[in-house]
Specification:
Layout lengths: L15 H9 L3 H13 L6 H14 L7
């Protein structure tokens, strides 16, 4: 799906932010901070929606065989 895979080595929970970071060429920590910022501060984006999207992506994205 979109060339995104979950990471095995650079993960905190499910490896979704690590996989997205590798795909777009960003540091995974920056992706995590942007995700937290969007969930907490941006109007219209709730923590529940972000958590649900993260869990769904964690279930449907394949795990990377390399990293």
């Amino acid at each position: 799906m979109f060339g995104i895979t979950r990471t095995r080595e650079d993960r905190w929970l499910l490896g979704v932010c690590g996989g997205i970071g590798r795909r777009i060429g960003w540091n995974p920590s920056v992706v995590r901070l942007v995700t937290i910022f969007a969930a907490a501060v941006v109007p219209g984006v709730s923590l529940l929606m972000v958590a649900a999207a993260y869990i769904i992506l964690g279930m449907i994205l394949p795990e990377s065989p390399e990293f």
